[in-house]
Amino acid sequence: MLLKRIEAKTLPEAIERVRAECGADALVVETRPTRNGYLVVAGKQEPEAPPRDQAGSTTFLSKWTKGFRPLADKATDFGLSQTILRAVEKALLGTRVELSRPGDPALPNLACRVLAALIHDEPRVESSDGFQTLALVGPTGVGKTTTLAKLAARAKERGERVAIITLDTYRMAAVEQLRAFAELLDVPFSVALSTNDVRRAIDDNIQADRIFIDTTGKSPRSRGSLPMLERTLRNVGASTLLCLAAGTRARDSRLVLDAYEPLGIDAVCLTKWDETCAPGESLATVVEQGLRLSHLCVGQEVPADILAADGGQIAAAAFDCEPSEAPA
Predict the structure, then answer these.
(1) How large is the average pLDDT for residues 208-214?
(2) Rounded mean pLDDT of 33-42?
């Protein structure tokens, strides 16, 4: 079941949208207040049916149609979940591609297109009319500071006025690291110890096109430490970019997303993409939760090793196809 995230100004309005978009028998997984109203996570509960090929047969041994099986095997090695792959195969069953036997040359291209459509990007992290104040949040060690440095450097290259604020006074040398980077970019840098400090620093840089806030890494199991960060970011009106290591297992990815959901996750950046052979588990979790993907971090070099999320390129990697086969 693919979950759908529905936001509205009031809870009754959100529930009404759930009924309209997911049906009267929709399964509501979670409801919670957000900065702008309420968020409801829901999905339509569908009975599990045995997979069928294009002729309606359920007698084959694999859980995939014969034509789709080679692609499904590659995507499984990549880490994609069966939920995502079932959604792709179901969409393909309604097309003219041949799934009863392998070898249809049109199948890889079309499978990439279907998967790419499930991956929603978030261009506002870098667009001129996007997020002005952006806080990078996430567990310890996922590369928040490095990702901030890449985004700040790219913004400066675009000619934007940039300011950097750090809340991370816990990690040894974190302040000095960011201060040195800010000096290198020749941009304002502030250390904030409280919500008032953050608000003051934002007011001091109100003319900046982009204000980046670095935060202390929080374990998803230490949920008691997250409400304070949530209040701070809400009070200053900051958008949030969750950094999640691409090699994080599906179960742990869900734990992170659930823990950080109260902050209001505006976008996700999958970091350390180059350090795993199976980034599909974290990717699938983001897709299944209905979250938007902004970037992939593919190395330590600043600012080169960060890529804007491209569903077509990601789908081509998942199915081990030529990138040119995916939609541009």
Answers:
(1) 98
(2) 82
